[in-house]
Amino acid sequence: MQRERWRLRIYGKVQGVFFRKHAQMTAQALGLSGFVQNMFDGSVLAEIEGEVENLERFTAWAHTGPPAAKVQKVEVEKGLPLLEESSFSIKG
């Protein structure tokens, strides 16, 4: 099974709607590692690492997010160096 690391930048109404907590729960359910954090411009940044199929599932979830979110756009950068983290954390 191929492992990769992707960076997602999620735009819209994604702060103050428990996006990071839901992202953490979704990532953990999919067996992904990495982190999620709020950015100063109002977006959310997530770096996710794991099997490609589960990265795709997380990315599909990120296009909608939790119920209170209004996602406008998700940018995906693939092929980041693997960090072999063991957990998924919430930063900032």
Description:
The mean pLDDT is 97. The protein starts with a strand and ends with a strand. It is of the alpha+beta class and 92 residues long. The chain is built from two helices and five strands; from the N terminus they run E-H-E-E-H-E-E. A hairpin with a 5-residue loop joins strand 2 (33-38) and strand 3. It has one domain: Alpha-Beta Plaits. 24% of the residues lie in helices and 40% in strands. A five-stranded mixed beta sheet has the order 4-1-3-2-5. It has helices spanning 19-29, 52-62, and strands at residues 3-13, 33-38, 44-51, 70-77, 88-91. The chain is globular.
Overview in brief:
By secondary structure, the protein is of the alpha+beta class. The chain has helices at residues 19-29, 52-62; strands at 3-13, 33-38, 44-51, 70-77, 88-91.
Strand order of the largest sheet: 4-1-3-2-5
Level-1 CATH class name: Alpha Beta
CATH architecture annotation: 2-Layer Sandwich
- Encode the helix/strand succession as letters: EHEEHEE
> Remind me, CATH topology?
Alpha-Beta Plaits
* Low-confidence region ranges: none
Computed structural class: alpha+beta
- What does the largest sheet look like? 5 strands, mixed
Into which percentage range does the β-strand content fall?
A: 35-45%
Distance between the termini: 32 Å
**Count of DSSP helices?**
2
Helix content estimate: 10-25%
Radius of gyration: 12 Å
